[in-house]
Amino acid sequence: MPKILVTGANGFVGSFLVEECLRREGLEVYAGIRATSDRSYLQDNRIRFFEFDLQQAGNMADQLAEAKFDYIIHNAGVTAVAERSDYFRVNAAYTEAFLQSLREAGALPRKFTYMSSLAAFGPADTKPEPVVRLDHQPAPLTAYGDSKLEAEGHIRRQSDLNYLIFRPTAVYGPRDKAILTFFQLINRGFEFYIGRREQLLSFVYVKDLAR
Question: pLDDT tens for residues 3-14?
Fold first, then answer.
């Protein structure tokens, strides 16, 4: 049975990716998490666990050689940190180290899917309708977006890696904490200033993204 690893499996998007893998059947599903990670969303007894620490991503060759995953969805990363450098350390450098360990282990998967973000592209600048096109050059506005774009670069440089890069926009749904916080504050009477111009942002429901 093919083996699939979902990194960052205990989080908002990652836990739904695991559920979708289980729903499709015919896959041996591994949740990639730290030993200390919360497993509240990973209670299905069909889930197997692959414990690792991204801080040691460059020293995982033995683990990966033994596991030999057929498919990997690399979803682990950070979206909000105090220091700008942490975005690049976790999202970009750890991704590069993870790929290096896969190569050293001789364990490149049949397909490597990277969960990036539309933040790596930045806002569309076309008028009158802001439409993102494939021939547009990425121009991220945030450190988070820059770090995701840098991670994409590490992946694209793997000439023999069969990869897919997803750039989802803002994700909402059950288990989300980021967008939920805004709704909770609004419900408590807080007002937010979002500017005088019309703001356009597309959203994707987390279960649709997982599918």
Answer: 999 999 999 999
